[in-house]
Amino acid sequence: MRTRQLADATGTGTTGPENVIEVGGLRQKYGDFEAVRGISFTVPRGEVFALLGTNGAGKTTTMEVLEGYAPATDGTVRVLGLDPIRQHRELRPRVGIMLQEGGFLGDLTVAETVDLWKGLSQDAGRPVTLSGSTELPGGFTLLGSRIRRVDRVTMGALELVGLEKKARVRVKQLSGGQKRRLDLALAVLAAPEVLFLDEPTTGMDPEARRTTWKVVEELRDAGTTVLLTTHYLEEAERLANRLAIMHEGRIHTHGSVEEVVATSGDMITFRLPGTSWTFGDLPVLDGVAPALTYASGGTEVGYTLSGPDAGTRAHAALRPLLAWADTRGETLERLAVRRGTLEDVFMRIVGEA
Amino acid sequence: MTKTDVLHAVRLARLDLTLVGRNTTVLFNVMLMPLLLAALYSSFPTGDVGGVEGKVFVLTGVPGLMLAFAVFINLVNAFTSRREELVLKRLRGGQPSAMAVMAGSGLGALAVFLFQALLIGIWVYRFEDVLPVNVPLMVLAAVLGVAVFGLLAAAFSGMTPNAEMAQITVLPVLLVMMVAAPVAFPADVLPGPLAVVSNLLPVTPIVEMMRTGFLGADHFADGGEKLTMAGQWTAALPSIGILLVWVVIGALLARWLFRWEPRHG
């Protein structure tokens, strides 16, 4: 049963027994460079939590501390109640890791890679497949001059990520997106309780991306806790129960997708011909000054109204805007009032910082 | 090591052997080069050495030199390229322990080395009609040799920035082994200081133990005195001691220098 539990993600994180991942005041330094600057968050069991951010935001560093690759410079981290460094041996069988890149032996075939990893995973004997496909017959494949059976678990894992037809292909011949899918197959092979996915769909084509999303959704529905990092806002919106936006080592906002999007408020947007417009030329609406961007011989104008009743106030602000345009004889091209998006929040945070 | 560690190590060793067979460069360096080297060394006209036909003397010592290829060069390359390709990182994040990963590589290298030593044994028997008299001593030399050079390989891979540079990193060790190893001559024929240095290098005790195990005689000096089984083990004790010291040195160096991931930045 999935537990939905909202928790603070900036410093007062809820630390109840249902929290599978707990991060408190995490700081991580490499020499003089502080990659992560005191972040806190918790992830309850069965939740997908997304860390969003630009390159260098500190997402992967955070992930690697949780995976036990590096000890934290300061702060506390717990995964399933265990210290990822000191209790690595107990934790490893319960965790699946999808690296951001690489980690494959190019001269092995896809099936051999899964076989190897299965042999190195304590609990990988359980079939790992999407529902309904556990009855797959074991396939046969040519490996060099020998005929070797590809067992059901391996085929199940490959089918899960749509690589069953590549079973006999050497890993070095796979595309970047196919390697990402193989990585996902390895990560879920031992049916982990916690899954760390570092930019899981980078380099994938749209179809593979959707397949991956479906896998993550099925795992989440089966009770797996997932921490993922991504650049793709659409991915976070679709998969995450909650998310945090990181920038320059800090979490700037967090919450459910709806909560985070709500912080962006409502927007009035339009375009004016010409690029000679300045802030002083345009009216202040509901106490908000406009944001201007110049492109293709025109000026894009945006007003962001946040707080309670932002939608009502945005519509009310149209009246003085139209009056201003009427007086000046200007045409407001592509005039729209719309809810803010995750991208708006993201861009605001990156821009402000 | 736990039972799981042993199982993981065996799987990783099997993996290493599979990969040796799939990469022609590795196959040449690891499998063929040592045998070509043995052929080259044994073609030198040495006459009798310590009462043994020169070719037999060389061939019974040459397995010590083969460690350079089958173990040292092989593992420096493997550790370095796997670190660059993040394979070591993936293994470290998985269930195999660090001990199992290291032991797996060592076990694979040991298998290659024993296979080559076996070929040399067959060669010596087929053409020189000499059978080894103390196989356990030879196996012990092989195990200790693989341990020392496997650990040194781990340490050297930490100093090697990428797989291309590995060809250069291994050269000093390779040259020292080829010059100082008493393959074609007894160690005590070297000038005084060089003999001391040669005796303290890890390759010399391995050559000595291999030769003693094969011929049942102590060829450390130019005498080649025949020994009983107990005498062979007694004669090997100093060599075993030196190798154990090198195991400790290798472990400390590996702990200090070995890296699981490429450097950040």
Characterize the structure shown.
The complex is a heterodimer of chains A (353) and B (265). Chain A has 353 residues and is an alpha/beta fold. In chain A, 29% of the residues lie in helices and 29% in strands. The N terminus of chain A is likely disordered. The model of chain B has no long low-confidence stretch (mean pLDDT 88). In chain B, the strands form two sheets. Chain B has a two-stranded antiparallel ribbon with strand order 1-2. Chain B has one domain. Chain B has 265 residues and is mainly α. The longest helix of chain B is centred in the first third of the chain and has 31 residues. In chain B, a hairpin with a 6-residue loop joins strand 3 and strand 4. Classes of the chains: A alpha/beta (353), B mainly alpha (265). At the A-B interface, helix 3 of A face helix 1 and helix 4 of B.
Quickly describe the structure.
Chain A has helices at 59-67, 88-91, 110-119, 152-160, 176-188, 206-221, 233-239, 257-262, 310-328, 342-352; strands at 19-30, 33-44, 48-53, 74-79, 95-98, 139-143, 146-150, 194-198, 225-230, 242-247, 250-256, 266-273, 291-295, 298-305, 333-339.
Given as residue ranges, the uncertain stretches of chain A (5+ residues, pLDDT < 50) are: 1-17, 127-148
Give the radius of gyration of chain A. Answer: 24 Å
**Oligomeric status of the shown chains?**
heterodimer
Gross morphology of chain B is globular
Helix and strand element order of chain B? HHEEHHHHHHHHEEH
Greatest interface and its participating residue counts? A-B, 27 and 26 residues
Largest sheet of chain B: 2 strands, antiparallel
> If classified by CATH, what would the architecture of the largest domain in chain A be?
3-Layer(aba) Sandwich
State the helical fraction of chain B.
Answer: over 70%
Stretches with pLDDT under 50, minimum 5 residues of chain B? none
Measured as a percent range, the helix fraction of chain A is 25-40%
Number of strands of chain B: 4
